[in-house]
Amino acid sequence: MTEQIHAKLCGRVQGVFMRSYIKEQADELGLMGRVENKEDGTVAVVAQGNEDNLKTFISALHKGSPLAHVETVEVAWGQTSNPQEDFLVIHDQANSN
Questions:
Q1: What kind of fold does domain 2-90 have according to CATH?
Q2: Considering the entire predicted model, what is its pTM?
Q3: Which residues are catalytic?
Q4: Which of 79, 5, 83, 4 is closest to 62 using CA atoms?
Q5: Which of 19, 39, 43, 85 is spaced 20 to 30 A from 73 at the CA atom?
Q6: CB count, 10 Å around CB of 47?
Q7: What's the rounded Cα separation, in Å, for the pair 86 and 65?
Q8: What separation in angstroms does the CA of 73 have from each of 59, 84, 85?
Q9: Contact predicate 67/16, CB 8 Å
């Protein structure tokens, strides 16, 4: 089983290069998963890896990209038996950065 988090970021988190920032942080920590903008203005993240790297990653989520203003980060911990092979940025029509 692989450690996994589901995170929801609220605040000014879309249109501020947040997904690119999150992918960069995940890649540096060797995490797998995905990040995407949601229609309600939040950013959703699923990340998988070892517990220490996930904790470091969560700290980076709270900080956010230089243009972002992260108000809250909701995190749910779990495990998965279906690990991802990469960290993907899911692009949508709302914002493409």
A1: Alpha-Beta Plaits (3.30.70)
A2: 0.92
A3: 19, 37
A4: 5
A5: 85
A6: 26
A7: 21
A8: 10, 22, 25
A9: yes
d(CA 50, CA 30) in angstroms, rounded, equals 9
State how far the alpha carbon of 81 is from the alpha carbons of 4, 49, 58, 84, in Å. Answer: 10, 12, 21, 10
The tens-digit pLDDT sequence of the chain (97 residues) is: 899 999 999 999 999 999 999 999 999 999 999 999 999 999 999 999 999 999 999 999 999 999 999 999 999 999 999 889 999 999 875 544 4
Cα torsion angle, 33, 35, 36, 41, sign: positive
- The ranges assigned to domains in the chain are 2-90
User: In sequence order, what are the beta bridge partners of 76?
Assistant: 6
